Amino acid sequence: MNPERTSWPAILMAVGAGVAAAFQVGKAPIALPFIRAEMGLDLSQAAWILSIFAVMGAGVGAGMGTMVTRLGSRRLLPVGLFILALGSLAGGVLPGFPGLLAARVVEGIGYMLVVIAAPALITLLSTPAQRQMAFGLWGAFMPFGMAVSMTAAPALPLLGWRGLWLGMAGLLVAYGLLVHYRMPRPPRPPRPLESHVLRDVADTLKAPGPLLLAATFIPYSATYAALTGFLPTLLIERMGVTPGTAGLMAAGVAGVNIIGNVATGPALRLGLPRRKVMAAAFAVMMVGCLGIFPSETPPSLAYGLCLLVSACAGLLPGCILGSASIYAPRLTLVPVTLGLFMQGSNWGQLLGPVVVGAAVSAHGWPAASLVLGTATLGGVILALALRRAGKEP
């Protein structure tokens, strides 16, 4: 069921929910030096603060998609924001490293509900002709949210990382109430009487494309999460900048990802095959990652390569998420397909920082080039394999 016209105010509100959720991803990298100092953590331990956020999504993303299908994206979007607020509040008040990790898991549950429910709403509130444009906006939620939250870095010496967590909790509650009371109710697609959770997941997995696209999300999110997550630490260690300056520079890297997000729609409207756009983006990411971390790379060049990698990487979320309505077996399974996509994304967010953190702790920063170069090469291969799905030329 498609609407007669696109409801852009409602779509912007849904994108705003994603931005508020992305704040919870972006707050961790800038707070990492302060958390490590307070708790005495090495880099491999601190990596779990970035990664454990994605544990639930990596395990049950598709299952959460079926829950959104049954209970409704409009109903679950504010619930996800409230769960995020609860996790952020708990992280700000619970003592010790285990308490912080447990709170991040709660945040991850709320995050998954938001990033499945919001694009499902966008699908229901947009016309087919304008859906790719709407998903181009949605694809920018992560870099925009991360960039904005990272600009809080200069205030952290005064505010403290726990103050940042508590402030985010208040913001999430406020936005959750806004969505609950102001988000219009979209037309809900009819659900077949024989629909069943396991059958929905099985039908989605058997369809050509969704599983491959979910796998393609893994190297993207692994690279993006590791690069943006450790960038403030890299800048402090390699360039000797202050934590506040490092946070602002990392915000710039996260922000330029929006360039690729916005360019996705025009690139696909020109008739460029989705798989070739994705493969080209991964190829640039691979070359950039191989040059960022070696010790002989000048710091200014390394930072420039970070900007290039992030900008080109932005083409990938829009290409993948915007294909949900194309590759879903039927419209009612778009949330399940999105859940599967986000499951792949969360596997990348889980593995990227942990593997890179362990490699850097053992062998130094140059080891990150090998890890991320291999991941992005895998992305090129997976993107080109999309031709076998046969949905697009």
UniProtKB/TrEMBL annotation:
Domain of life: Bacteria
Main localization (coarse): membrane
TM regions (residue ranges): 46-64, 76-97, 109-127, 134-156, 162-181, 211-234, 246-265, 277-295, 301-320, 365-386
InterPro entries in UniProt: MFS, MFS_dom, MFS_Efflux_Transporters, MFS_trans_sf
GO molecular function: transmembrane transporter activity
Pfam families attached to this UniProt entry: MFS_1
Subcellular location, record wording: Cell membrane
UniProt protein name: Putative MFS transporter
High-level lineage: Bacteria, Pseudomonadati, Pseudomonadota, Alphaproteobacteria, Rhodospirillales
